[in-house]
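name: query_chain
kind: protein
chains: 1
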Amino acid sequence: MGPWLPGDDLYERFTASAREKPERLEASVLTVNHDPGRGTKYAGSGLIVIGIFTMFYMKAYFFGPRRR
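structure:
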């Protein structure tokens, strides 16, 4: 966001208590997100990974050498 220059309302508000005022002021915005379904998403991903490993090892069990 910005740049704000001396004389702008936001520039004056943000630099009111500053000892040295910069020539121009720029800012970035960081937002925080809350995802209530994150646990469900990770549980589903974990089940998929467990299923992949299970199928990998069960393949040797089901498709092993046949007895005569």
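note: The two ends are 76 Å apart (CA to CA).
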